[in-house]
Amino acid sequence: MARTSSDTALKRQVAGEASPRPKAKARLDLFKFVPFRLNRLAAEVSSALAIEYQERHGLDIPAWRVIATLGFRNDACSAQYISQCTRTHKSTISRAVTMLLHEAMIERVENEADRREFRLQLTKKGRALYEELFPQLLRREDEIFACLSAQERKQLSALLGKIEQSLDLIQTSEEADAKQAY
User: Fold this and answer.
1) Which range of residues forms the domain containing residue 109?
2) Residue 180: helix, strand or coil by DSSP?
3) Tell me, what CATH number does 126's domain have?
4) Domain count of the chain?
5) Which of 7, 25, 67, 69 is the most buried (most CB within 10 A)?
6) What is the pLDDT of residues 20-37, one digit of tens each?
7) DSSP-derived pairing of the beta strands 106-110 and 118-122
């Protein structure tokens, strides 16, 4: 008579032996999964920086992204550019643009190449806010990354650059302008 696995298990129980456990299904450990870790870090760093402009100026993260994008550029750009550059949904950017237009932080200017399209740029008020905020944000960034040595910061930047390059992400405003991307 052939022995079944239940016969073997029963004999082991009677003999006091432990029955073999079924193999556990492999599962994804999110805390070791790099995309999850990068997303968490991005969210936390964004929130830590947001304190600088939310509490003092009532700006939310999308509004700051609009101001920051317009602030580092030399010329006006479209809301679509801002959305693609910051990887923020276009409806979120649209709401931020509406609020910033209402607050006179940004203004629409006609696109000379395509008169059907308007571009966005900072007003004097928006430029002043940008000029006030970016040094504070750079200081806050330094505080956040104080746990890294200067060499580790360079390494982190280089490694992030490699990942961005492998994903074919534009890494500089000059590159974006040259490719007329976004």
Assistant:
1) 30-147
2) coil
3) 1.10.10.10
4) 1
5) 67
6) 666 767 899 999 999 999
7) antiparallel
